[in-house]
Amino acid sequence: MSLKNEFFIYMKNKPEWVEGLSFEKQTRDVQQFYLWELKKVREGVTVGGHKIHPWMYWHLNHWHIQQDIMLPDGQTERVNNPPILRDNEWFYNESVIRAEENPKKGLFIMGSRRLGKSVSISSWTMWNAQTKYGGEASANTIIGGSTEDLTALTTYMNHGYEYTHPMFKINRITKDWYSKQGVIFGTKLKNNETDVFSRIQVINLDMGSNTSNQKTAGGTPVSWVLDECGKFAFKKAWEAARPSFDTGLGTWRISPWLLGTSGNIDMVQDAMSLANNPESNNLLVMDWSLIERNNPDPTWTRKSWALFVPGQMSLAIKKVDSNLGEYLGEKDPELEKIKMQVTPWESANAELQNELKKLKKIDTVAYYNRRMFYPLDPDDCFLQDSYNPFPTAEAITHKNEIVARGDTGKPVDLHINNNNEIVYNMSDKEIAEFPHKGGNVDAPFILFEEPPAPNNRHIQQIYCAGLDHYKHDTSDGDSLGAFYIVKRRSNIFDTTKLVASYVSRPNTMELFNRNVEMLMKLYGAEVLQENADISFQQYLMRKHEADIWLMNGESLAKRFVNARSNQNNKYGITPNTRNIQYVFNLVVSYCWEVLSDKKNEDGISIPMLGISRIKDVALLDEIINYKKGQNHDRILAFGYALAWAQYLDDVGVEVGHPEIDLTDINRARKNLRNRIDSGSFYSTKRSGFY
Predict the structure, then answer these.
(1) What pLDDT does 642 receive?
(2) Are strands 320-323 and 307-309 parallel, antiparallel or unpaired?
(3) What letter does residue 249 receive in the DSSP assignment?
């Protein structure tokens, strides 16, 4: 291996740098040697046809960390050494090179704990600060959500800088990481002015508090890193920083880094959004082949995702000694000279999966924590760390699949045309996000199936709706109005399915009620409301239509919950503990129902669960992030719709029952009153719920 591409750590008989002397006073041999080395630090090297990024060359040869080594007697000792090349670092190397190809893209790395992430961040940031001129107006920025996490990074940077070779070391003028200007590198001039070469700025977002989100805006970054993005809400800060990456020519000047592990499930929504949508955020898409080298049995499903580093690559699992040539499957003496530690995939898989099997039997919380902290599949990163009765893993996978293929319903606006018909047009409104941050939101209707025709003349007992209303026009709370419509199954081969939803909180409840009315009449859906909030009931009463559209929840409660149920308000269902639990359990059962088996790529049959019938992304988010005691407007509204569908099935209402013509309102109202009060009105054969 020639001087031009040989690793510094493997060189023998290096010319000796005399401590205390400047570069100008070193011998000519020393000067020439270290000029070559500086070139490698700034430009990288190519070994055996494989590019080593300049940062990775710096990282492996000139950065220093405290690491444990094994002594002959079996004891360990902590020593100061350059980091070891592992398959983790090689994955970073290949990803950084891909991200910096024109046009530049960002790196979003999500995965296991104990990957050496903090060491890489500190090394990357200091390499940029020591090799790239930024001046006073630019900065190398590190952003985190807590002082604890940021202190770990600054500790690594302090240590690494202390042991940086003088040839690559720019004088540090200031030392306060958290000052407004950050740590400044450069030269103090005689007139007390400063010639700034670069700055490192450390920003604490205080777990994503609103007052901190704009701290990332402004300035021209030389490098930009957001650490522990799985632990706090960061999307506003990310959006505030993105304009500073732009060259003004439609490309980015840098490749920003975002790195994280699973942490606070309540704060992981931002990470989930970016990880599942890398291309729309100008982030590098995962190349799965990079972690499938020498791996006979991958535990993940390939998908369009950000960069994923699985639990098998964690430092918690002992790696085995190898070399770069063997790892790449190439017999090249230059590659074989570079020592490397690699993941033993088969034993790592067995170790993690055996541990999961044990925990699943004895401790559910520990089981889910283990899956999140050492994920075998990208979806494991976003599991709940507390009890969730829904099929969470299947829900995450299903959500990612429907988002990837754009099968998430049709957002529309409804209005009444000149012929007094309810019609729709496509909407550009945003759906109400989960969780709702408070205040008003004007969201679209979502149609998952075309409405029937004629669309506003008949009630057909095919469509059942559930309504969970709210109490005030405006609130800072997280409650929304939720209205869901399901279509009952028509035969034994069919299944009850979600066909439309409206979840919103417009400026007035009157507007919300009017919108619910239009969607209800568009499908001819009978409505089971939660009757603690009766705004919609009052709205229909003013139109003398409450008897037509609102169903008797007392009859339902007596049939399924408590035979002695007695409601002051017969319309809808009272949200007492037993009723709510019954409705909630319906949704859980619906999601877990086994519909059929599907085969994976290996031909193995996998049960397809009822959760696959739901294409409402926000409802899936609510299911995935369910926690007892929180607001679950969508789940309950969907549950009320399922409850009324079950009631009609149970009392024997056959789908396709003769339509009731609403042009004769008085007759229709009388017929529906009779139907509500007596299950014997129907004589057709009963059918099952789903």
Answers:
(1) 95
(2) unpaired
(3) S
Q: Which residue(s) pair with 500 in the sheet? A: 447, 485
Structure token digits, residue 163: 């042991």
CB 662 within 8 A of CB 548: yes
Nearest Cα residue to 411 out of 380, 438, 445, 387: 445
**Distance in angstroms (rounded) separating the CA atoms of residues 52 and 55:** 8
Q: What is the pLDDT of residue 62?
A: 96
Q: What spatial distance separates the first Cα and last Cα of the chain, rounded to whole Å?
A: 70
pLDDT, position 681: 30
81 CA to centre of own chain: 36
Residues 328, 335 contacting (CB under 8 angstroms): yes
Look at the block and give the residue holding tokens 């009153």.
673
* Residue 605 clears pLDDT 70, i.e. is over it: no
d(CA 452, CA 525): 11
Q: Kindly report, residue by residue over 11-67, the tens digit of the pLDDT.
A: 999 999 999 999 999 999 999 999 999 999 999 999 999 999 999 999 999 999 998
User: What ranges in 322-390 are assigned the alpha helix state H?
Assistant: 324-328, 333-336, 345-362, 364-373
- Point out which residues pair with 76 in neighbouring strands: 70
* Chain centroid offset of residue 681 CA: 50
Is 155 buried (19+), middle (13-18) or exposed (0-12) by CB count in 10 A? middle
Inter-residue contact 638 to 606 (CB < 8 Å): no
Q: 559-563 long-range contacts, Cβ below 8 Å, gap at least 24?
A: 559/647, 559/650, 559/651, 559/679, 560/643, 560/646, 560/647, 560/650
Q: What is the band of 663 on the pLDDT scale with cuts at 50, 70, 90? A: very low
- Number of C-beta neighbours around residue 449 at 10 A: 16
The Cβ of residue 422 has, within 10 Å, a number of other Cβ atoms equal to: 18
CA gap 229, 239 in Å, rounded: 14
The alpha carbons of the chain give a radius of gyration, in whole angstroms, of 31
- The SS3 call for residue 463 is strand
Q: Does the CA dihedral 135-59-99-275 come out positive or negative?
A: negative
Residue 368: phi, psi to the nearest 5? -70, -35
* Residues belonging to the chain: 690
Tokens 């401590």 sit on residue: 19
| Selection from 159, 160, 123, 161 nearest residue 142 by Cα | 123
Please classify residue 235 by burial: count the beta carbons closer than 10 Å to its beta carbon, then call 0-12 exposed, 13-18 middle and 19+ buried.
middle
Amino acid present at 195:
D
H or E segment at 238?
helix 235-245
Minimum mean pLDDT range among 19-23, 73-77, 617-621: 73-77
- pLDDT of 485 over the 50 cut: yes
How far apart are the C-alpha atoms of 510 and 542, rounded to whole Å? 12
DSSP for 61-110, please give it: HT--EEEEEE-TTS-EEEEEEPPPPBHHHHHHHHHHHHHTSSSP-BEEEE
Residue-wise pLDDT tens digits, 230-271 = 888 898 899 999 999 999 888 999 999 999 987 555 567 788
3-class state of residue 606 by DSSP: strand
User: CA-CA distance, 532 to 211, in Å (whole number)?
Assistant: 36
- Average pLDDT of every residue of the chain: 87
Torsion sign over Cα 552, 558, 562, 567: positive
Chain centroid to CA 417 = 41
Give pLDDT tens digits for 198-242: 999 999 998 655 445 555 555 789 999 999 988 888 988 999 999
Give 381's contacts (C-beta < 8 A, 6+ positions apart): 110, 111, 230, 261, 262, 268, 271, 272, 275, 308, 372, 375
The structure tokens 């030392």 sit at 175
Which residues are CB-contacts of 178 (< 8 A; sequence separation ≥ 6)? 202, 204
665 three-class SS: helix
Residue burial 116-143, b: 16+ Cβ < 10 Å; e: rest: bbbbbbbbbbbbbbbbeebeeebbbbbb
- The DSSP element (H or E) to which 50 belongs, if any, is strand 50-52
